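step=predict obj=Amine oxidase domain-containing protein n=481
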Amino acid sequence: MPLTLLPSSSFSFLSPTSKSTHSHRFFTIPHASTTQLAPKPPPVIKTDPVIVIGAGLAGLAAATRLNSDNIPFLLLEASDGVGGRVRTDVVNGFLLDRGFQIFITAYPEAQKLLNYNELNLRKFYSGARIYYDGKFHTVADPLRHFSDSVLSLGNPIGSVLDKLLIALTRVRVLSKSYEEIMSADEVSTIQLLKNIGFSDSMIGRFFRPFFGGIFFDPQLETTSRLFDFVFKCLALGDNTLPAKGIDEIPNQLAAKLPSDSLLLNTKVVSVDSDDSNSPLVTLESGEILKSELGVIMAVEQPAVDKILAGKKQPPPPPPGQRKKPARSTVCLYFSMDQDQVPVQDPVLFLNGSGKGIINNMFFATNVAPSYGPSNKALASVSLIGLYENTADDDLRAEVIKELSGWFGASKVESWRHLRTYRIGFAQPNQSPPTDLMKNPDIGPGLYLCGDYMTSATFDGALVSGRRAVEALLKDRALALV
């Protein structure tokens, strides 16, 4: 099939200094029999110096860095839009992010790349409401909601000592640089919390649903490095949503790229090398693209394994680490009339009861009214795991039953289901031992980036894209800006 261009774009397969008619030439080879067709060599199309595979956050960050250094590139994306896992759908006038995603404003790499004013970020309440023992209890950031935090000292979500330990943990992470955090000695998050001295009630009722929801890991096996990184970002910044949906983040990055540098609906099936070790990229259409400087693979690790198919190997796991299953989630969306919303606050609700299948939920239109039509509201409900053996209808019924216990059946039973997202690969599994600063260079002219190369966060994906380009530039002896 032909390559699909973005609307209104004109694209040259050659670098700006090259010329081509873009015609495919097939050679006629003499043959003894008129019934035997001559073999046709695959079409090799010479492209701009660098090819980036995948237009998720990592690929967009790589493209942004190449563009800032005036290095021509071609960005290939298999789907119909940029963002990878960071996408938003419009359903009946509602904005549905593909899974539970919150943007933390203190992400250091994001601060360098994104214009927050243009994103029109809408803030969550700095804390959470936790469902426990049939009631909701507030946990608040004392620096942002002092009076709420004082009132919460006597609630059953941990002891007064637990609240003091949170403050001390805040001081500890703020005293470290991000680089120190990423290379520090590590244990699992659950072991770190126990080492600090948090009570079982604080861990079970707050940390498991809150950080379990961030990591899609209710057992809190995720590395303490990632816990400290996220905890520091939460201390310094706000939890937010872009007013027009989470995919405004990748859309903003893509909008700054040359219009002829991005091809959508263009699936890569393999990456090989020619006799000179120059990477060759084969598309599903059969066309082969040749890179002059290098190929940056910015796709999820399972896709990397499939595309390389044993030709080159990504960095091996640390010694003693087995291949771990990815983190999965299910996200359900419900619409309702405004008078059926039980609260008006932009707060995250956590399940601290230890029962049921819901991990967390929130009313997206309380955070950003633009997520739904006027006079309507939107609820987002997240489960951890894929629930492969449970049908969508059964899952929806169980969620409605559980939420009826939280907010009352008279309100919840009138909610209308919009869509269920089952996301098998929500995040890479980053339980110890980990290497959050992997070398992106895996062979002549071939580089990897993605959140599995750094930290499983928005920021980690952005960092990995930049680092892959820096490795390419170093290898090619190009001047760094």
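step=describe
The chain has three domains: 50-86+247-308, 88-157+321-408, 158-237.
step=end
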